Amino acid sequence: MLRDSHAFAGFSSNDIPKAKEFYGQTLGLEVTEENDMLTLNLPGGGRVLIYPKENHEPASFTVLNFAVADVDAAVDRLTKASVSFERYEGFDQDDRGIMRDQGSPIAWFKDPAGNVLAVLEG
Fold this sequence. Notes:
The protein is of the alpha/beta class and about 120 residues long. The protein is built from 2 helices and 7 strands, in the order βαββββαββ. About 20% of the residues are buried.
């Protein structure tokens, strides 16, 4: 039924200008803005809609994963861009926040609205 649909993901933010700066400048993604909403145009053709929501509550789970060839290099670049990585109780993460013992190496960080994002090797 939806096989030919061009689906896309979406999540909210409580500050669209901050989100635009973070995703566009800090992360270096292609970002367009229309009707007070952002569209992240991801490599490979994927899209994510970020819409404003006054009573926004950050997702308690990862809303967007970025597959990278080298998670260590990605964490280093993001750290230099002032991105802080999350530490989660019960996960075996190194001093930079990278978990390596459960599949692909992965590290989590948050956008300005508190939504959880990740870089993972793969």
